Fold:
Amino acid sequence: MDNGGGGGAFGAIDIFLAGLGLTKYSKVFRKQQIDLEALMLLNETNLMEMKIEIGPRKKIMKAIDERRAAMAEEAAMEDSRL
Structure:
């Protein structure tokens, strides 16, 4: 497991947060061991428990919801190829 800011699962989280302009939360996500798989399981209550303020919390949840929708769409496209 990579606890640094470099590559690996946590590096992907850093990139995700940077895309939202929320890199200041990278340390919180690393401390909670949030990787991309765990990210997709988060809900607003989890982010509140992580002490993430409402504005950034809403941005993170919107991005997670968009990612979930994109993944569902991709899965549907793969199913239609069968």
User: Anything to note?
Assistant: Residues 14 and 26 are 6 Å apart (CA to CA). The domain at 8-80 is CATH 1.10.150.50 (DNA polymerase; domain 1). Confidence is low (pLDDT under 50) at residues 1-6. The chain has one domain: 8-80.
